[in-house]
Amino acid sequence: QVLEYRQISKIKSTYVDALPRMVNLKTGRVHTTFSQTVAATGRLSSSDPNLQNIPVRTAMGRRVREAFVAVDRPSWCLLSADYSQIELRILAHMTQDPALIDAFRRDEDIHAATAARVYDVPLAEVTAEQRRFAKVVNFGLIYGMGEFGLATRADLSREVAGPIIEEYFRKYPGIQQYLDETKRTAHQLGYVQTLCGRRRYIPELKAANRQIRSSGERMAVNMPIQGTAADIMKIGMIQVQQEMDRLGLESRMTLQVHDELIFETPENEIETLQGMLLEVLPAAMELVVPLKVDLKRGRTWGEME
């Protein structure tokens, strides 16, 4: 009950009480501020208010999202375009790991495919628990998590998690090579870079303290992947806006939430906008695996499907 109270109190103070006071009296809308230089990886960050941090995984958080609606005109709705597993697709490109590339080219559930290889079971027989752990490992590696961190996140002992992680690297040797090579190059050069050549210098790698150096190595592993995802999204945003202008659409790009774009669109433009997004966004950058975009729509941000 204490935890529930804290959650409710946080949502009330941060969103329910605060957001109505932030409505612009002239436009009747809430306007966030985006920055390109706050996040070290190059991701856009949002502030005053932070609209990239509206809860989505809890029922109460989704109620907050339901307060964000399309313009109050007949037949308008919100449309979401979300890059599906973009960071793992970038990981496949950077590691050139054959098994990871093959799973994406087959359009398989990547976490289930990983579990099938690591646990050596048919894809159709992967359990929910096996998939959950594979998901923790897939995403954990992007953020430079080690054996202890992965075991903790998956709620497993190190004795249980350790052999599974070792098997993961045996089945995906390209990932281990990428991690080792990225750390080595980062130590040599003092920086890492995205596929577009945008650098992040990491002074932590030269620290005397081992924990700070380890933190620097995690940054080095993560930045090329998350930074490239940010580059792809920004390229996609520019190209989408150019195409919207060329087509003379009334539709508007209203919000970016890392891998997702939110549009406001009239019903008579939905098919045109959807078709354009499915063509332009996956073509923002050519990788060895296809970029995939998922579309959803709804009257409010909280009820898109």
Description of the structure:
The protein has helices at residues 2-16, 18-21, 59-65, 86-95, 98-105, 110-119, 128-142, 147-153, 158-171, 173-189, 210-247, 270-280, and strands at 33-35, 45-47, 76-83, 191-193, 199-201, 252-257, 260-266, 293-298. The chain is of the alpha+beta class. It has a domain at 87-223: DNA polymerase, domain 1, CATH 1.10.150.20. The strands form three sheets. Strands 6-7-3-8 form a four-stranded antiparallel sheet, covered by helices on one side. A two-stranded antiparallel ribbon has the order 1-2. Strands 4-5 form a two-stranded antiparallel sheet. The chain is globular, with a radius of gyration of 21 Å.
Question: How would you summarize the topology of this molecule?
Answer:
Blueprint: H1 2-16, H2 18-21, E1 33-35, E2 45-47, H3 59-65, E3 76-83, H4 86-95, H5 98-105, H6 110-119, H7 128-142, H8 147-153, H9 158-171, H10 173-189, E4 191-193, E5 199-201, H11 210-247, E6 252-257, E7 260-266, H12 270-280, E8 293-298
Antiparallel strand pairs: 1-2, 3-7, 3-8, 4-5, 6-7
Helix pairs in contact: 4-10, 4-11, 6-7, 6-9, 8-9, 9-10, 11-12
